[in-house]
Amino acid sequence: MKDVLSGILPVAPTPFHEDGSVDGPGMRRVLDCMIDQGVDAICVLANYSEQFLLSDEERAMLTRLCLEHVAGRVPVIVTISHFASAVTAARGREAAELGAAMVMMMPPYHGVGLVPSPQGIFEHFAAVSDAAGIPIMVQDAPLSGVSLPVPLLVRMAREIEHVSYFKIETPFAADKLAALIAEGAEHIVGPFDGEEAVTLLADLDAGCTGTMTSALQPERIKPILTEHRAGNDAAALRHWQDCLPLINHENRQCGLRAAKVVMKEGGVIGSDHVRHPLTPMSERTRTRLLQMARERDLIALHWGT
Description:
Elements: E1 7-8, H1 24-36, E2 42-44, H2 56-70, E3 76-79, H3 85-98, E4 102-105, H4 118-132, E5 136-140, H5 150-159, E6 163-168, H6 173-184, E7 190-193, H7 200-206, E8 210-211, H8 218-229, H9 233-254, H10 257-265, H11 283-295, H12 299-302
Parallel strand pairs: 1-8, 2-3, 3-4, 4-5, 5-6, 6-7, 7-8
């Protein structure tokens, strides 16, 4: 990837048929819809893609399918998280060989009793850098339960060749982003936030250059970044205030199911099935989600109709 990646890089949901099998044609439609939403890149196989519910064979198939179908129209980021360094490195190498612009990975974790030392975490990311040879986004999220203090992240950015992007989703993300940017300086190429952009405005004020949301409403969130980058603070605030009720409903009530429900309603995919032990969205939550989606005339809500 020659250019620095910034802007909105949403996560693609993985569609399933009602029997739980992967919907390959639906995956292609999801990617096409996201490109029509004006995204700057697409992330696949992330937590909001239900990556933890996919077999190794399904992951490999989806990696190839997504990269071949997008075919360079936008950069594709492939999530490769795994506890084993060798497995993570192999996934990174495969993604790079298939044309991924970047890989994203969480630190290795497997419950509170199986957290590597800071040096082990450093070596884990270094192994992927050597194997993949493309930019790495470090996903710093509470889900892992692993502490990634700013000094460790800065050391990784300075000493591991391809570690240069960071997705910060921890509490008080803006303060951590500001500290990371200040201490890491030119080594912090892409400071991003996540969590459906629920703290985006504060994170932009702190210096982040992009966000990784879901695929629910990227076309509505992107103007927040565009206006903020142009110095139009009042306009950025107005856009964020418009998006925030739906962001909050997704973040606090729906989770990864939100994009699937709206995409099914809009004919992008045929089913909003999530794999067990995840459960379907309640009708109460669905009704409010679709009401707010219609009020904002989301692209995904009518893309396939």
